[in-house]
From TrEMBL:
The lineage of its organism: Bacteria, Bacillati, Actinomycetota, Actinomycetes, Micromonosporales. InterPro entries: Beta-lactam/transpept-like (IPR012338), Peptidase_S13 (IPR000667). NCBIfam families: PBP4. Keywords: Carboxypeptidase, Hydrolase, Protease, Signal. One of its GO terms (molecular function) is serine-type D-Ala-D-Ala carboxypeptidase activity. The keyword Hydrolase applies. Transmembrane segments: none annotated. Belongs to the peptidase S13 family. PANTHER family: D-ALANYL-D-ALANINE CARBOXYPEPTIDASE, PENICILLIN-SENSITIVE CARBOXYPEPTIDASE A. Residues 1-22 form the signal peptide. This is D-alanyl-D-alanine carboxypeptidase/D-alanyl-D-alanine-endopeptidase. It comes from Micromonospora profundi. Its EC number is 3.4.16.4.
Amino acid sequence: MHRRLFPRALALLALVATAATAGAPGATAESPTPATTRLRATIDAILADNRLAGAQASVVVVDTSTGQTLYDRNGDRRLIPASNTKLLTSTAAMELLGPGHRFTTDVQTTGKRRGGLLSGNLHLRGGGDPTMLAADYDALAAQVAADGVRVVSGNLIADDTRYDNTRLGPDWTWDDEPYYYAGQVSALTVAPDTDYDAGTVIVHAAPAARAGARPVVSTTPPTRYVRIDNRAETVSEGETSISIEREHGGNTIVVTGQIAVGDEPSSDWVTVWEPTGYAAEVFRAALHRHGVRVLGRTVLGQPTPETAHLVARHDSMSLGELMTPFLKLSNNGHAEVLTKEIGRVLSGSGTWSAGLTAISEYVADTGMDTGTLRQRDGSGLSRRNLVPATEFVDLLAEVRTEPWFATWYAALPIAGQPDRFVGGTLRSRMAGTPAAGNVHAKTGSLTGVSGLSGYVTTADGHLLAFSILLNNYLTASVKTLEDQIAVALAGHREGGTSTARVAPPSVPDTPRTPEGVECSWVKPITC
């Protein structure tokens, strides 16, 4: 695949151009305007904050219309990007799969029909859809019943063979495994609600009517696939402190702690062990509700015969539509499914290796220097991902010309917008500043890692691409520093009086995020 010339070639032209950039007479990288000099001093002051003492900071800002670099601090330094990695995965998916791409989940059989009896097996074939809800499996079961099937003499076969059976990223930390942001990846799975955290259940613990009794524990969706070990207690008064965690290697979920009589239920998202079996159990229960009995057992991981014929089908939302929950919520599961789907579609291999190879080829075609970076997963959970900020900016500058850009750009979190499907992980950040409703950017968070990369329009209408990567800090959060930089960029004006200040601009406090967890707008955490 050829490499496009835009970001670096245009930047080079900007260095030698004799013509001035719009509104900035005589500006070059070596001879910046007074406004750009003030902007650089402001960002330098922000990065001098004590919270970054001993840490690593990489910041690059480029004017996308001219290619001029307005700021570059350690731009070529490889740092852990956390969920900024999703910029590579999402743009590659939009280009290689297309915004109209859909995932298909269907039911097939090779059995023979005689009245309501189906003599043979029923195959539930997964197409990788990370948005499959219990209601969607119920609709598939209703189609089977409407086809006249009442009894299936054979087995229910859960076919997840579109992707390989490697469920977790090889570099993911073991202690993340029970939590919703590290769900196991399968081509056949279930999401409990329209957050679409595939491969999870929501566990609810409500207080009993009297103190001393066990809380009432339930799940969404209702399922027998997980076993609840309820060790918690209802108390007459006191602070609710319910803990909900799945034991490693199985589907026993342990509920501990206390909840006071009359308190609201406590809920948490928990991953399941082996999502294929989870999907099969949810579908089998739906068949039973619709009057279809399967006499055989449930078998996991066998491919559907080519001679099978269709009984029922469900198509997902389009990939363009999926971009909104994916990027607004920073959904890790979506990133990993898309990585394997790219591998499956382009090379016939639904693996991380095949998908990452294709992503690397695509981003190289946009102008990223893939020899300077390493991508190990689709989501950014791996700490072995390393990407220089300048490479993110190259990607951001180039994809503006793609026909799907408007859809993708709108799906990025937008600063200071409280609506859950607009602001996303930036909904409570930069409100009441020039960056609010302006900054479209991808957040990133791991313990000691923070990132913000995207776009901001300056006070005089220039669209800037920027990347801020901060690593190895010891403080609880450095999000406010990212916000200060973004606000300074939003207030920047070339020509006339610059609104950028040497002192860091004021921004509202950013709610703290628990260590090691990507921000989310609906979970018990916010950012």
